Structures are given as structure tokens and as C-alpha cells.
From TrEMBL, chain B:
Protein family: Belongs to the sorting nexin family.
Boundaries of every PX domain copy: 107-228
Region (Disordered), start-end ranges: 1-63, 75-98
One Pfam family recorded for the sequence: PX
One GO CC annotation: retromer complex
GO molecular function: phosphatidylinositol binding
PROSITE patterns: PX
Official protein name in the record: PX domain-containing protein
Membrane topology according to the record: Peripheral membrane protein
Amino acid sequence: MIATQRSVSGSSQSPRSPSSQPYLSVSVTDPVKLGNGVQAYISYRVITKTNLPEYQGPEKIVIRRYSDFVWLRDRLFEKYKGIFIPPLPEKSAVEKFRFSAEFIEMRRQALDIFVNRIASHHELQQSEDLRTFLQADEEDVQSKVSDVVLGKEKPVEESNPEYEKLKHYIFELENHLAEAQKHAYRLVKRHRELGQSLSDFGKAVKLLGACEGNSLGKAFSELGTKSETLSVKLQKEAHQLLMNFEEPLKDYVRAVQSIKATIAERANAFRRQCELAETTKLKEINLNKLTLMRSDKVGEAEIEYQELKAESEEATRMFEMIVRLMNEEIVRFQEQKTLDMGIAFHEFAKGQARLANGIANAWRSLIPKLEACSSSS
Amino acid sequence: MMGNEEADDLHESREEMESLVLDEPSNGRSSASATVPDHHDPLLSSSSSSFSDRHNPNSSLNAFLDPPSYAEAIFTSFDPSSNGHETPQLSSNSNPRSSDYLYISISDPQKEQELSNSLVPGGTTFYTYLITTRTNLLEFGGPGSEFSVRRRFKDVVTLSDRLSESYRGFFIPLRPDKSVVESQVMAKQEFLEQRRASLEKYLRSLAAHPVIRRSEELRLFLEVKGKLPLAKSIDVASRVLDGAARLPRQLLGEEGMDVNAKGGRDLLRLFKELRQSMSTDWGGVKPLVVEEDKGFLERKERLAEFEQQLSNMSLQAESLVKAQQDIGETMGELGLAFVKLTKFETEEVLFESQNARAADMKNVATAAVKASRLYRELNAQTVKHLDKLHDYLGIFLAVGNAFSDRSSALLTVQTLSSELATLHARIEKLEAASSKIFGGDRSRMRKIEELKESIRVTEEAKTCAEREYEQIKENNRSELERLDKERHDDFMSMLRGFVVNQAGYAEKMANVWEKLAEETSGYAKDGS
């Protein structure tokens, strides 16, 4: 649903009110495990609510699985070159983790965000493939899993210094973000570990307190209990940290990787344009030669030349479109990311503050009890 | 006061003013907050606690963080009014009842040559330490005395052995290990420092003991320059058979070395014989030590239980400290990653939005680095607080020794009693037998006389042993009382310190994060 998404697109946005304004609202819900053993997978309910005429009706519910989302992403990538297709969460490699509640929830959220970003993008939302994805009954959708090849930087001959800077920026950005994300993930783990050790510590303190009968024993037992309480807080915060800080960072990384894919596309288009321009030129020279020679092959050559010229112009147009779209997209992307990260940082700060205050209050409340214990001894 | 000092041996923490140089493009060195040039990055420095950071960041990255302010300074979570027993490292080792003090410090390890050993070319070397004492105790010559001696580790071993012999039944602090392996494996400087510190701690704990601090052995050790005037041990027999250490002087002569008196020699012979009979008895029936004091047994059991739980808690405390260290480190690494990101986003600005992001990331980096420092400080304090647990584990070892002293003494009494019974039985038999052999009477009478003499000596020994046993029992009792009280105070103080420490640092961290939340509040939905 558009209203609750963090990544609200800055561009044309369908308002929420259902009556007159056009709207397209999608939600990905209800993950369900289907199948057995190695074949097992998670299916999701994708609910579309819309008043757009191209759609079949005000509401449609379909069942989709991860590979269907991949299909959608691939189709859009093919058709809308130059536009940054929103990233998908990755396939999880680890078998054990694949069906953990946390992973499923994280994926569901990420898929929901994915679809909504498409639905709120002024170009992508008009895609026929999107409509297919949202409406087609299960048998009709072709599930084709194809991995987009995000290769290393292919040798590009564009000698555009601005563009070079941009590419360098994108590649470096990915490295830095990945590092930040790695540490964010570790931080989550550390929270869990600290929580665990506080819990163990609390238990040990309580056991020691049980040996003492007097006020000292009481003090120990109070401390032990507090320690266990704080352990719970830490586990909770670990989860929050994962959802609200680490995941957005990961999302940012994925987005940057998606841009790299577009960069590769642009390079391809450029190369194609160059090759065709080159070939066309050669054909032209050949044609002129034949014309001068008054060869009877002129007619044939003329036709070939025209065809090639059209192709070349098409390639040039294609390339220019990619460039144009890319420039627009990148500005939008940057602004969007600033917003996304700003929110993530804010949540991070709030979460840590909440945790720290909780810890401080818990320990503070213990002090008068300890004073009472020591004075009554 | 501002300085670059790290927390040292004292429990009071100093302000850790590791400032980072602020190098904004618009203004030069900011003079408003008096910054001291940074000598080491907080994430680089090795603190005096045993945890060292593994980072090695580029110090130019520091330029992107603001220097810490006074408000974030460390505070002390230690009771200034704690009694001397809790903190043997405190400079004024004072008895709360009077103003007596006995302050010991160890320094200046020096290499010396062993003179007597001529087999090894060049002789063997050993290290001595300068031991400086400041005191106003009367035993040492009155108010304001200060003096130093040089001692080697062997001397400390001697001191420790002698104290064990003389003060049986007391909870005598254990001396540091000989650490033979470590001395080979560790770097020289490190080993010397470790040994110096452990010796200092040991001597200070002796000085903190109300009875031991007044002992002659300790005084000789601290005061007498030159060779240590303590023999390694009083005598072999008494080391094996307990109780001889406190034999009346008329029996043993001077400090155990002079055994001129006949009675003394007889006693020694007696004890040697007893020792032999005891050792042969091991093969047979081991004499049972029957501890009759039910109250004592109960106490002993409860203490054993306490010790076990203490040991467990100590283990968990170590885990906790490790976990705190880890989270601090990771937070620091996260901060660094954001520092790099900030630098990256400001280096080449291609888009407007980068500026906003860079500002945000800088705030996050600052907060994370501050939090990381706070974790580190929290942990250094936590270690010091929870160290008390380790100290008590050591104390329990001393308690074990004292209880052993008691059972050994009881064994001696019981052994002597049974020996007496045997002797009486033999006399009875001899007296009952009539002499049928001519001249047999005389040898029988002579035997009886010898036995009577043995009985006399043995009875004296038994009286001694009983006195010794009673003394040890009393020592045990008074020490247990002292332990209970000190244990109560020490642990309460430890718990309180731990809790105050945790609360204090949590509050500081909350401030750091609240600031960041405020800085990023523009992004909040619904103005949360």
C-alpha cells in the first residue's frame, strides 16, 4: 500500500482518496509455505486495488512466488532501459535460513516495497508486464528465472568526463555502503550476544544470591532479575535494528547494484551505436564507390545502406533515450535515497536511545533497593 | 583538567580527552573548544585494561568528527568512602578504626648477578625490585617513616612460607605464582611489569590484613636492607608435623634455629618418629580427623557452596565483559564506515542531495564513535568492579588453607593422644609382668623409666598441640567473622558500583542517541 511505504516516490503520485483520482495500490501479504522438501517455496498473496481503466476491476488477488517477481523485474529491465528498476531482495543461499520467520517477513516486506515502487513510478506503472503480473491467473504467468548479469565494468568508450565521474561514484558508493551494511549486520549480532550474556550473568548472580540468606542475598537476586529483564530489551532492539537500519542499508546496496546494471546497458547501447555508425559509414563509402563505378549492384547496396542507416539511427535514438532517462532517474534516485536513509538513521537513533534509556532506568531503579539492603544489614 | 591520560592503576577514572582535530573547510583550527592535538585515535589506543583495539584507521578521517565535550567526560562509579580492604590499590591503605597506614609500592626492576653459583660461566642472573614503604605504624619506627629495600622473588616465596607457618588458621593472601613458563615465553618487559604488579598487589593485601600487617616476618621483609633475615623455614619436622611452630621457646630455643636444650632435641626426635609412624600408617588405616564442631562444619559447607557459585558468576562476568567489548568495537567500526562514507560524499559532489546525506552520515558517524568510546570506558570500569570476584576467589583459596591448618592441627592432637594411649598400655603391661629372669627386673625397670619419660615428653607435646589447635580454631573463628563482614561490605559495594556504572554510561549513551534522533528528526513521519 502506497500510504505506508517508506520510499514514496517524489514524482507523480496517486493520492490515496479512492473516488475520482486514479490510484493503484498493491500489497504483498500472507506468506505461505508450499511444497515439500527441496521443492518447498513461499507463496505470497498480491492484492491490487485500483480504479485505472486498464485493469480488470477494482480489486484483484493473485498468488505469486519469488521467481515471479524476478520475472517481472527482468521484463521491466528489458523494456525500460535507462530507468532504474527497483531492486529485489536477494535469493537466500543458506538453506536453513530460507524458512525462518524473520527471513520470510523481511522478504515479504522487501517484495511489497518492490512492487509499490514500480506502481508509483510514472513510467513503469504503465507497463503491460506489471498488469500481467498483478492480474494474470496463475497458469498464464510464465515463471522464468533469469539472473541479470551484473558484470564488472565493461570497457566503455564514452569519453564523457561527467559520466566517468558518475560511474566512479556509483562503484565506490557500493563498496562503502556494503561495508556499512556489513557492520550494521554485525551490530545486530552483538546486541543479541550482549543480551544472551546478560541473561547468563543474571542467572549466575541469582544463584550466588541464593547462597546468602541475608540482605546481600536479596541484593544479588534483585540485580540478577534486572539483568534478565535487560536481556529481553536487548533482543527486542536487535530485531528493530535489523528491520529498520540494516535492511534499508542493504536495500540501498541493492539499488546501487541495480544502477550498475543500467550502466552496463548504457555501455552496450553506446557500443552498438558506435558499431552501427561505423558500419553505416563503410556502407556509404562502398555505395558511393559503386555509384561512381555505375555498378549494377548499386540498387542492392542502396537498400542495404538505407536499412543500416535506419538501424543506426534507431540505435542512436535508443542510446540517447537511455542517457536522458538515466540522468532523470539518477536525480530522483539520489533524492529518494537521502530520504530513505534519513528515516533509517532516525529510526536507528530512536531505537538506540530507547534501549539506552531503558537500561539506565532499570539500573537506576535498583540503586535505592541496594541502599536499603546495605543499610539494613 | 585536560590531558591525554588514560585511566591508570587508580580506580578513579580520569577524563579521557582524546580530541579529534576539527578541520572544517570554512574555519581553520577551532579555538573555541580547546583541542589538544590528537596523538592517538580513540579507536587505536591501547588502554590500560587488558583489551586492545584492532583498528588502524587513517587518522585524517578524524577530521570529520567533532571533538568530545566536557559533558561526555567519564565519571567515577567508585565510592570515595570505600574502606581500605576493598581497594588494596588505593593509595591510603587505612584501617577505618584508626589512622594507621601502611603503604607499599614496588618499582624499578633491576638485573643482578648470582654470586655464589660458580658452575655456570658468568653466573645466573635474577631480578630485584625496589620495595618502598610509607607508614606510621609503631612497629616500623613511628609516624612518617619511609624506607626502601631490594628484594627478589625468592624472598617473597620465603616470606609467604614463613607466614603460612606462623599464622596458621588465618586467611593469609596467596602469593603470586612462580610463573616459570611465562618468564620464558613472555617478552621481558611485559613479564617484569606483570610480576611487579602482582607482587605489589600481594604485599598490599598482606598490609591490609589486620593481623598479618603487624607480623615480624613482614616487618623484616619490608625494613631490613640487604639479605632477607628470614630462614626459608623453621625446621623440617615441624613443617611436616603441624603444631611445632608455636612450641614454647624454652623447648626450641631461638626462632626455631637453635635447638640446644635437651628437651628440644627430644621433642624433635619425637616428632620425627611420629612422622615416620604416620607415614607408615598411610598404608594402613588413615587416622580419621573427627571435627566435632557442628557449627563449623555447617559454615564450611555454606562457604563451599558460595565459592562454587562465585566461580560461576566470575565466568559469566568474563563473558559479559567480552560481549560489552565486542559491541563497542563493532559500533566503532560502524562509525568508521560512516566516516568514510561522509568523506566520500563530500569529496566529489555530483548531486545536490549528497550534501544532505553527507551531513546525516556525519552525524551518525559521530554518534557511533562516541557510543563506541562510551562502551570502552564502561567496560574498563566494569572490569575493575567485577575484579572483586576474582579477588574473592583468591581469598577462598586462603580460607581453604586455613581450614587445612585446622584439620592438620587436630590430626596432630589426635595422633599424640593415641600415641599416649599406646605408651600407657605398654607401661601397664610391663608393670604387670613379674620378673622371672634374674637381672630381668633391672632392664624392665629401666624400660619403664624410659617409657615414663616418653610419656612426659609426649604429654607436653600434646598440651602444646592442643593449645595450638585451640589457637587455630580461634583464628578460624575470628577470621570467619571478619570475612563475613568484609564480604558483605565488599559485595554490596561491588554491586552498587556495577549498577551505578551501568546506569551512568547508559544515560550518556542515551544522550548521544537522542542528539542524533533530533538531528534526523526532519525525516520522521508524523513528527514522532
